[in-house]
Amino acid sequence: MAKGEQLHKGHLEAVNLFGKSIAKRAAFRCEWCEGSDGLRLWEYRPDQEPSPENLALLCDACRTLSGSKSGDPHQLRSLRNALWSDVPAVAEGAAIVLSRCKEPWAREAIEESFIDEALKARLL
Ligand SMILES: [Zn+2]
């Protein structure tokens, strides 16, 4: 196995170690929209060490949303509650997705949230 591959494998194993505790934290619901389809761990900052703060349990739709430039406003609205989470992967991850949508309610929701101030300033 090449060194890069080995590192990648180690990283995924480290992520999976948190699977159970995060599923419990999430109460087996998507931590962004509370949906329950295709729940899987999602890494907020894949370049960093896996940790509970850096991981969220997300449904299919939200994982797709995390990587796309825009989203269905109805789906995006279901992310608003996630902004109040004290888990950065949940609150900041959702804020970044919401910030891509230019609707005023999304801006306001981010403004009112308690996410990291530097990130907030960058998003607004
Ligand atoms: Zn979801």
List the helices and strands and how they pair.
Layout lengths: L2 H15 L1 H7 L14 E4 L11 E4 L1 H7 L6 H5 L10 H12 L4 H9 L4 H7 L1
Antiparallel strand pairs: 1-2
The structure holds zinc ion (ZN).
The site of zinc ion (ZN) has 8 residues, from helix 3.
3D structure, described in words:
- This protein has a two-stranded antiparallel sheet with strand order 1-2.
- Helix content is 50%, strand content 6%.
- The chain is globular, with a radius of gyration of 15 Å.
- The protein has one domain (3-123).
- The model has no long low-confidence stretch (mean pLDDT 94).
- It has helices at 3-17, 19-25, 60-66, 73-77, 88-99, 104-112, 117-123; strands spanning 40-43, 55-58.
- The relative contact order is 0.13.
- With 124 residues, it is mostly helical.
- The protein contains seven helices and two strands; from the N terminus they run ααββααααα.
- Bound molecules: zinc ion (ZN).
- Residues 30, 32-33, 35, 58-59, 61-62 line the site of zinc ion.
Strand content: 5-15%
Query: What would you report as the Rg, rounded to the nearest angstrom?
Result: 15 Å
Q: Helical proportion?
A: 40-55%
Q: Regions with pLDDT < 50 over 5+ consecutive residues? A: none
- Which ions and ligands are bound to the chains? zinc ion
Number of domains: 1
Structural class based on helices, strands and sheet pairing: mainly alpha
Average pLDDT, to the nearest integer? 94
Q: Widest sheet: strand order?
A: 1-2
Shape call: globular
